[in-house]
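Bit of a strange request maybe. I'm writing a small parser for structure token strings and I need a real example to test against, not something I typed by hand. Could someone generate the tokens for this chain?
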Amino acid sequence: MRLAELSEKVNIRHPVDPNSVTIYKDPFYPEAYIIGLPLDSEPSYVWLRLFEQEVWSSLDFWDRKVVIVGKELKLVTTRERVGDKLGWLEELVAATNRRVEEHNKNVKAMKEVTEQKSVDEEDIRKELSRWLLRRVSG
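Reply from user aminoacidic:
Good idea to test on real output. This should exercise your parser:
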């Protein structure tokens, strides 16, 4: 994936107040609940793409239903699996943030290469101009 912009890390906002978290029945799965966990910031496009890749690479993807809406992470789970899913979710966010660090390093390196290339090209153009001026002036 080639995304040229830098991204910020995003985390589940702690401490999570269990009384303020939204919890409601999933309309599609009678045994499931949707739990809305607050994020500390709204994820960028880059963060969302990296998060999506982490979800897709998860071993139990089909059992791992999660979506991000604005500054809220929505987790679908059954009552019996809440603890397991919350642990998985924390690791998923941490893995995404590690990918963000790597992504940002790569973007910065690409920008440095591009900037150096521009400086080199400008130096070459100046040298060409001097050469042409010497040829014209004799």
